[in-house]
Amino acid sequence: MRKALVCGAGGFIGGHLVKRLKSEGFWVRGVDLKFHEHAETCADDFLIGDLRDQDFCRDVVDGYFDEVYQLAADMGGAGYIFTGDHDADVMHNSATINLNMLDVCMKRNIKNVFYSSSACIYPAYNQEDPDNPNCAEASAYPAAPDSEYGWEKLFSERLYLAYNRNYGMRNRVARYHNIFGPEGTWDGGKEKSPAAICRKVARAMDGDEIEIWGDGKQTRSFLYIDECLEGTLRIARSPDFEGPVNIGSEEMVSINQLVDIVADIAGKRVGKKHVPGPLGVRGRNSDNRLVKEKLGWAPSQPLRKGLEVTYRWIEQRVRKNSPA
Q1: Rounded to two decimals, what is the model's pTM?
Q2: Residue 292 is assigned to a structural domain of this protein
Q3: Do residues 176 and 119 make contact, with C-beta atoms less than 8 angstroms apart?
Q4: Residue 167 catalytic?
Q5: Domain residue limits at 166
Q6: What is the count of structural domains for the chain?
Q7: How confident is the prediction along the chain (324 residues), in pLDDT tens digits per residue?
Q8: Sign, CA torsion 286/292/296/302
Q9: Catalytic position from the list 149, 163, 176, 311
């Protein structure tokens, strides 16, 4: 039986990835600081511990795995990443995890490690125009990410590919663009914008206003979790293309438009109150030319379809947690 290791299996993407690998017949070990908060794990084995600890990493990788997925990181939404309050932790924690995992996998002769990077590595100077951002893979240099989170991701991309050159590994790297869906963080400060907006709309009464950071004209594209998993497995199993490659949607919307879509799904009239807050870059959208060329595939599901599922899931949780 094929064996897979998912680091960060207690998180949103990692939890869904465990399910996908199990559906393909893998024996799966999950590892994280915590169990998944929103779903029962279906991993065959789940270890709780800190991947910043080298001894724990050696316990996790105690034998051969056919595929290793390194998704573990210190991360969150704009309210966590762009305030500057967590920069040292974000860089130190994530870099330490990647250094430890690569070292132990190399020593165990495990060749196939997938690393989840981020669209946050792209230069801020290419994302100032909300209508025309440049996020082609080759545009990453000269480097100028807009956050320390992005800088750490860029360093780690280079680290994984250096291990390919120097140690004969076959690591693969993808740059995720705003992944969303059910069973993810939806409250507490680390949630991404689709989940935050779904929560605000679910809590709003018809005709209420919800707060939006900035003028709402900043643009993004958002990728539903199922398509993220498909792209992840395609690049992870690519025989000759190591990446980095974008895994994201090309359906770009403003945050104001995102609110309107969610409100329409909810069947509510919702106003927007624009307030100061951390924003990140002005515009960002996945450029899918390279993924189409190298993998013969690109995401195609409309944003609204994924939002319908996500909103219903978050709405149920809002109702469950509301005072009687």
Answers
A1: 0.93
A2: no
A3: yes
A4: no
A5: 3-179+224-247
A6: 2
A7: 999 999 999 999 999 999 999 999 999 999 999 999 888 999 999 999 999 999 999 999 999 999 999 999 986 666 666 667 778 988 999 999 999 999 999 999 999 999 999 999 999 999 999 999 999 999 999 999 989 999 999 999 999 999 999 999 999 999 999 999 999 999 887 788 999 999 999 999 988 899 999 899 999 999 999 999 999 999 999 999 999 999 999 999 999 999 999 999 999 999 999 998 777 789 999 999 999 999 999 999 999 999 999 999 999 999 987 654
A8: positive
A9: 149
